Amino acid sequence: MIVGWCGSNDHRIIYYTQHPLVSAPDGMIQLARKGLNIILISRTLSKLQDVAKEIETDFKVRTMVIAADFTSGGEIYDQIQRQIENMEIGVLVNNVGMSYANPEYLLELPDNEKLIKNLLSCNILSVTRMCQLVMPGMVKRHTGVVINISSLSAVIPAPLLTVYSASKAYMDKFSEDLASEYAKHNIVVQSVLPGPVATNMSKIRKSTWMACSPKVFVASAISTLGHTRQTTGYFPHALLELAINMLSFVSPRLMEKLTINTMQNIRARAMKKSTTRPSAAPAGEATTLTS
């Protein structure tokens, strides 16, 4: 997650993620280049410290680190609140995410109960609670930006990713109505629904025109801020959404069959590669706040 705060001559971002950071994510780099100081939140303190040092060295900004596991439930938010309560946060980017290791039927998910609990805590509770922590200051100052990173799977058929796609649909709907609630306070809330991006979570190793690199996606998505409340963030992903929804409108049964077959094929290939399937894919980036 990234949370950003601003005070007298001070601008701060908080970045939180559920998986250990190896290097600074592209979204964080874009913000650090603007001279914004950064708070990093993730599970592994040592990795956080390494990334914080990298950012301070490369961009001459200040950093702060907080160790927290967003699958652990509600107790972590009191800790986070205590550490950011005196900071004026101008922008919050909720980019935390956790999915399945591979497409799977709901009743056949490995370690079913634990996986579902962790996924909902990571994808739904974190976004809701972080907005509750950060937005009171935005209301008080009558300005702020909240960017929630959902998924294209929230608005297109996504069988065998049922819990993940439903959690991202929650984020999209939450963003839509939150934007209406707080527009009178001059707070911008945007929902971003990316399609395929070449990341560890998506398991796409090589970027293409459709499955772009994180750097390309971030640059494109940032340009939409202030122009629309909901966006795929990247033009090819908008075309993909349009094509899928048009086919769903013309022939819902055909679209369902194509989607199920595609997911079943991905599942079958994954099962051939490994007889022991991990319970979940790595969680994605989490939340960014800037001023």
How is the secondary structure organized here?
Elements: E1 2-7, E2 10-17, H1 26-32, E3 37-42, H2 45-59, E4 63-67, H3 76-84, E5 91-94, H4 112-141, E6 144-149, H5 162-182, E7 187-192, H6 214-222, E8 230-231, H7 235-250, H8 252-273, E9 285-288
Parallel strand pairs: 2-3, 3-4, 5-6, 6-7, 7-8
Antiparallel strand pairs: 1-2, 2-9, 5-9
Explain what you see.
The protein has 291 residues and is an alpha/beta fold. The protein has a single domain (2-288), classed as Rossmann fold (3-Layer(aba) Sandwich), CATH 3.40.50. The chain is built from 8 helices and 9 strands. It has helices at residues 26-32, 45-59, 76-84, 112-141, 162-182, 214-222, 235-250, 252-273; strands at residues 2-7, 10-17, 37-42, 63-67, 91-94, 144-149, 187-192, 230-231, 285-288. α5 links the parallel β6 (144-149) and β7 (187-192). It is globular and about 55 Å long. The two termini are 15 Å apart. GO terms for molecular function: oxidoreductase activity.
How do you describe this structure in short?
The chain has 291 residues and is of the alpha/beta class. It has helices spanning 26-32, 45-59, 76-84, 112-141, 162-182, 214-222, 235-250, 252-273; strands at residues 2-7, 10-17, 37-42, 63-67, 91-94, 144-149, 187-192, 230-231, 285-288.
Keywords, please?
44% helix; disordered C terminus; Rossmann fold; globular; nine-stranded mixed sheet; 291 residues; Steroid dehydrogenase; alpha/beta; 8 helices
